[in-house]
Structure formats: structure tokens, C-alpha cells
Design a protein that fits this description.
Layout (H helix, E strand, L loop, with lengths): L1 H12 L10 H21 L3 E2 L1 H4 L1 E5 L7 H12 L3 E5 L5 E6 L3 H15 L7 E5 L1 H29 L2 H25 L2 E2 L1 H28 L11 H11 L1 H25 L4 H32 L3 H29 L26 H5 L12
Parallel strand pairs: 1-6
Antiparallel strand pairs: 2-4, 2-5, 3-4
Helix pairs in contact: 1-9, 2-7, 4-5, 6-7, 6-8, 7-8, 7-11, 8-9, 8-11, 9-11, 10-11
């Protein structure tokens, strides 16, 4: 944990980092590929809508010795439709059969009582009309639309319209991937799934707003300096909040993974799959989009502004000047003086400009010849 904290501090200070913005075309390509796969799966396979959306009957029985497979076989034989059976904690079973009316429901109930060896009066039958499911779907779409509109308005006021547009695209990206996963795996779509979809929007937006807030703070007065471009500041914002985003996402995913893999997979509580799969996929997609989609989109939109274009030119020009100056200084230090012969060697301390005067100096040294030796009187 101390190493992770140290890494987070170094990322926050900008001492280390990964170039998320520089590789944004790679992330865009990955997201487009995943989104296309999700849309194709949705168009080809479609969603496995639950009984709440298609209409049908739900039968709940008391404790029975029949297994899930035996119960499913008996329900499908009695109804002539595909049945979904879930084992309940009290030993009973819950049977969902779509496309069943009231008259057919009574016949299925009687046959189930015989096959499962339980009293017919103890079997609870509930009919669900398709119109009720349509009302749920319409209200869910309405709630989703209102949520997105309010989010865009808030982000445009709190930050700016470019961040609002980027956040909206990230939200659509997350929803599309989550719905596509449901189409691929064939999990049943129930009202719990809709609740999960609406819930993940808040988590996705939370991670995005954290990065946007850091970007807003670090980009104040950005046009008054010539050290960093807007894309580089955006990259620093992602790196400075990276550990925090990872921690919050992992902490949120752990209990959801427990519901999905342990509750739904190991324990067989199929009803948990409805909401846990949407939460698990949505949380992971939201963390991905806030780092790899939303912030790079903001950088792309901001770099189109004339001020940011001029800033980028100034930053690059200053770096080119600094690089040229550094290269010039390095070249000057690396030059070695040419080897000189004995007759061309300058005396110690002599200036380089007077080396050529050495040939006239012997006359000056012969001035004292002919003077008598000894002490002067």
C-alpha cells in the first residue's frame, strides 16, 4: 500500500506518468470496435426481455422435492412455452412463463400441482400484461433522458460545454456497452436491470467529474505560460487522479462481483444477475470512459480553439529554441583543440592571439649581451 501511495504522489506531482492523451486514437479505436460489437449483438440477437416487459404468468410454489430441471420440463410441457425456473430459499420454486393468458394460467397451475405433488391452492399465480412492461420501459427511457439533460446542463455551468459534451458521449458509450453485453450473454432484462443501468450513470459521471475538476484547476491561466500545452495539462490531470479512480472503482466492483459471481453463479440466485451484471459492466466501462474517452475528447475540442492553437505554437517554438541552444552548447564543449608542434606551442599563460609573435622575441632576449658581468658599481 505504501508503494501504491508513493506512486500516486509521484503521479500527482507529474514526476511519472503515462501518455493517455498522446495515444487517444488507440483508445478511440478500441471503443469504436467494442461499441460496434455491442450494436451488432443487439441488432442480431436482441435482448432477452423478462416477463415484466413481454407479459405472461409467474407461478410460485411451496416446498417441493422436484429439481429445477424437472420443474422446468413440467412447466414447458404444460404451457407450451419456454419457462424460467428459480429455486427459492424456502425450498419452493418460481416459474416464469411468457405469453400466457388467464384461461391458460389455470390449466398450467393444475398440471403443475400434479407434476410437483403440491396442493393447487398453495400455488400462487400472478399475471403480468405486456402493457405494464411497456409503461416501465417508457418511464425508464424518460428518466434516462431527463438525467442526461440535467447532467449536461450542470456540467456546462460548473465547467464548460466541451466537458458536458464529452461526458454525454462517455455516458452513451457506457450504456451501449452494457446493453450489448446483455445481448451477448443472453441475461434476462428485468426492472432490476433498468435500475442497474440508471445507477451506473452516477458512478460513471463521478469518475469523469473528478478528472474534469482536476483539469479545471490545473488549466487556470494556461495561456499565460509557455511550458505546457492543453493536452499535456489534461494528461497530467488524468495521471494525478489515476490512483484515486482505480481505488474507487475496485472498491465498488468487489461487492458487485460478489453478487454476480458468488450469488448468481455459485449460489444460483438468478435474480441477482439482473442487477449485478449491469452494475459490474457499467462500473468498469465508466472507469474506462472517464480516463480514455471523456478527457481526451475534451483535449481534442479545446485544441481547436485559436488561443490553444497559439499556445501550442509558442510552447513548441520555445522548446525548439531551448533544444537548439542546448545542442549548440554541447557542440562547443565537445570540440578539442588541434595538436600543435613544439615550435607552435604557446608559453604557459600566453594568450592565443600572440602565438605568432614568438619569432621576434629572441632579439629582445639578446639586448644584454656585451655588458660586463659582475656587480654594478
Amino acid at each position: 500500500m505504501s508503494k501504491l501511495g508513493n506512486l500516486g504522489a509521484r503521479l500527482y506531482r507529474g514526476e511519472v506518468g503515462y501518455d493517455f492523451i498522446g495515444k487517444r486514437k488507440v483508445w478511440y479505436g478500441v471503443s469504436i470496435l467494442i461499441t460496434i460489437t455491442a450494436v451488432v449483438a443487439l441488432a442480431v440477437q436482441g435482448l432477452n426481455l423478462g416477463i415484466e416487459f413481454k407479459g405472461g404468468a409467474v407461478f410460485t410454489t411451496p416446498k417441493t422435492e422436484a429439481s429445477v430441471s424437472q420443474t422446468q420440463e413440467a412447466a414447458e410441457e404444460a404451457s407450451g412455452h419456454q419457462a424460467i425456473v428459480q429455486k427459492l430459499g424456502n425450498g419452493g420454486v418460481r416459474i416464469q412463463v411468457s405469453g400466457v393468458d388467464t384461461a391458460k394460467s389455470d390449466q398450467i397451475k393444475a398440471e403443475l400441482a400434479t407434476d410437483l405433488k403440491v396442493p393447487a391452492n398453495d400455488i400462487n399465480a400472478e399475471l403480468v400484461g405486456p402493457s405494464w412492461g411497456a409503461q416501465i420501459a417508457n418511464k425508464a427511457w424518460m428518466g434516462l433522458g431527463i438525467f442526461m439533460i440535467l447532467c449536461v446542463i450542470y456540467l456546462a455551468i460548473a465547467f464548460e460545454w466541451r466537458m458536458a459534451v464529452a461526458a454525454l458521449i462517455a455516458l452513451i458509450h457506457d450504456i451501449t456497452i452494457t446493453v450489448g453485453i446483455y445481448a451477448l450473454v443472453g441475461f434476462e432484462v428485468t426492472p432490476g436491470t433498468v435500475i442497474g443501468l440508471l445507477t451506473i450513470l452516477g458512478y460513471s459521471l463521478y469518475d469523469t467529474v473528478v478528472v474534469f475538476d482536476s483539469l479545471k484547476e490545473q488549466s487556470k491561466g494556461i495561456t499565460k505560460q509557455t511550458k505546457q500545452t492543453y493536452s499535456e495539462v489534461a494528461n497530467l490531470s488524468i495521471n494525478s487522479t489515476l490512483v484515486r479512480s482505480i481505488n474507487t472503482t475496485v472498491v465498488a466492483l468487489l461487492p458487485v462481483a460478489g453478487l454476480l459471481f458468488i450469488g448468481g453463479g455459485v449460489l444460483g440466485a438468478g435474480m441477482l444477475n439482473d442487477i449485478s451484471l449491469s452494475l459490474f459492466v457499467g462500473l468498469a466501462a465508466g472507469a474506462y470512459s472517464s480516463i480514455f474517452i471523456a478527457t481526451p475528447l475534451v483535449a481534442d475540442l479545446k485544441e481547436r480553439e485559436p488561443q490553444m492553437k497559439a499556445l501550442k505554437k509558442r510552447v513548441l517554438a520555445k522548446r525548439a529554441q531551448a533544444a537548439a541552444k542546448s545542442e549548440s552548447e554541447t557542440t562547443g564543449q565537445d570540440e578539442e583543440p588541434a595538436d600543435l608542434g613544439p615550435e607552435d606551442a604557446a608559453p604557459a599563460g600566453a594568450a592565443s592571439g600572440v602565438v605568432g609573435q614568438r619569432r621576434t622575441q629572441p632579439q629582445a632576449r639578446n639586448r644584454g649581451r656585451g655588458r660586463p658581468s659582475g656587480k654594478r658599481r
